[in-house]
Amino acid sequence: MIAVAGIVIVTLIILSLAVRKKGNEESIRKGRVKKENVSKKYAHRWYFDRDYIIDNKHEIKLKDIQTFRERPNYSDENVRNYFAENVINTYTLNFLKSMDQRFKNSKDLADHLERARQYLYSVLPSSRAGEMFTLYKVYLNHLIDLAGKVRKPGLPWSADEVIADLQDVQRYRRGIFGREIADALFGPGIKAEEYGIRRSAIMNDKDLYGAEKEYRLKQLDRDMWDDEANSVGENIQPYTRYQEKLQIYEKDLSEMRSEEARQAKVQEFRREIFTPDQVRRLDEVDRTVADEKKKEEEYFASESAIKSNTSLSEQEKEARIRELQEETFGEEADAFRRRQAIKTGTEQLLKEQAERLKR
């Protein structure tokens, strides 16, 4: 039973850690267009609602999220230090989970609890040990009860369904532990997942222009992190930030009137994010990729001409194609042939599987 409960909570925690026009875009970036004037252009999205499970009114900071994700070492000395003042803090939930693992080989629930009680009284002062043991019993009982209440996994869930489930689970926990303790224990994990889901939903919305997305992302940061809003994402690597920028402006880029205009916008993003030397190296990579693409396009055009030449025998076609590969790819010819063999084999396998499914 303990193992089953542990699996349930791990699953929940993974889930909770586990997502215009040019003139208007410029105006939004410069703060001249109000939220109402921007958002009324779009059909309502679930993430436009600002009914957060854990918002900036809860005293959960970025450092609490980091502590929650780090999974500290719960040595006896660390346990005494972590809970020297009180038993409810950002270390508590992972500690409770660590005890579940520590005594996972118990004969039954009663044996498990007795081992936990002896351990707690051996590492903590009597009063603290009693408080932690009482909390641990409530925690285990809540896991067992939650196993029968949580909606069974039926992937894929939509983002708003995951948020709704997180909200239901946290509402249940607040009824068991009390709002303050439930939010202190589970809040960091819930907040990290809720923020990630909402942010991902905004970024992946293919119907929104970049300016609207950026406006919504900034609003989300303010709503959930308040005075830490400007610190969110400050450790993201430049290339990741660049990829996110392209994702945010995906609709704008796809509607550019020419490839030249699109490339100019991409260059603007690069200069905004990277150093001049990094921009130069990215441009070199682009040129290399473009050259390789052109080379392959020319090769396949020539290969097609050889294959369709009815004056050649199959043996002559194979010889000429191999000669063409050597001329086109040089030292990389063998690697090209291996890639093509893998591609052909994969396509054949998929075709056979599709045919079997039709039977």
Would you write up a description of this structure?
The chain has helices at 2-17, 22-29, 35-39, 62-70, 76-82, 92-102, 109-123, 126-149, 159-177, 179-203, 210-225, 238-248, 250-254, 259-273, 276-307, 314-329, 333-358. The chain is built from 17 helices and no strands. The protein has three domains: 2-235, no CATH class; 236-274, no CATH class; 280-358, no CATH class. With 359 residues, the chain is mainly α. It is elongated and about 95 Å long.
Structural domain count: 3
Query: Termini, distance in Å?
Result: 43 Å
Total E-strand runs: 0
Task: Outline the low-pLDDT stretches.
Answer: 1-38
Secondary structure elements and their pairing?
Blueprint: H1 2-17, H2 22-29, H3 35-39, H4 62-70, H5 76-82, H6 92-102, H7 109-123, H8 126-149, H9 159-177, H10 179-203, H11 210-225, H12 238-248, H13 250-254, H14 259-273, H15 276-307, H16 314-329, H17 333-358
Helix pairs in contact: 1-8, 1-10, 2-11, 4-10, 7-8, 8-9, 9-10, 10-11, 12-14, 15-16, 16-17
